[in-house]
Write a structure and sequence with these properties.
Elements (H helix, E strand, L loop, with lengths): L1 H4 L9 E2 H15 L16 H12 L3 E4 L2 E4 L1 H11 L4 H14 L4 H11 L10 H5 L2 H10 L5 H8 L3 H12 L1
Antiparallel strand pairs: 1-3, 2-3
Helix pairs in contact: 2-5, 2-6, 6-8, 8-9, 9-10
């Protein structure tokens, strides 16, 4: 519920199912505290447990679905404000960072970022092979959106940083 109460870069508090799973996966890796069991099947780093929890919140009237995105109801907002008091600032900052970093990426950018950041999520993926075919484009997009730095981008592409940065200016021509 807390992650839905947090605004992302676009000031939205909504999340679709994929972004919700990935943000929690990222958060738990940041916090080094695995409380949720994740599977590396299909989209890697997803959780049946989170899906069931979201369905329970929806059935309880704390969360509603608007189109493909989840949003807190007024009752959910009130409860989230109470829950915030139970967490320390470091944990809340990690949760905010996970949503801020990931929520406004499109689905393919999000999946590529997660697959590359957490290689174990590539196992049994139904998307990784397709995404890695265009890894230069996805890497460049994530770099230009300030999600990764030049060192990470060059590592993902197997080139030195200078060559990567030069390739950016070559694309602009």
């Amino acid at each position: 519920m807390l992650i839905l109460a947090i605004e992302d870069r676009t000031k939205q508090k909504t999340m679709n199912k994929l972004h919700f799973h990935k943000a929690i996966y990222y958060f738990e890796n940041l916090a080094q505290d695995q409380k949720v069991t994740f599977s590396n099947y299909k989209y890697g780093g997803v959780s049946f447990e989170l899906t069931e929890n979201m369905e329970t919140l929806e059935e309880s009237g704390l969360v509603t679905k608007v189109g493909t995105k989840y949003v807190l109801t007024l009752e959910g907002e009130k409860l989230a404000k109470e829950l915030i008091q139970e967490y320390d600032s470091e944990t809340l900052n990690k949760l905010k960072y996970a949503k801020y970093l990931l929520n406004d990426l499109n689905d393919k950018e999000l999946l590529f970022f997660m697959y590359m950041t957490f290689p174990e999520t590539q196992v049994n993926s139904i998307e990784f092979e397709n995404l890695v075919e265009n890894k230069e484009e996805w890497t460049r997009r994530l770099f230009l959106r300030n999600r990764i730095n030049a060192a990470t981008a060059s590592q993902w592409l197997g080139m030195n940083q200078r060559d990567f940065l030069n390739s950016l200016s070559a694309c602009d021509k």
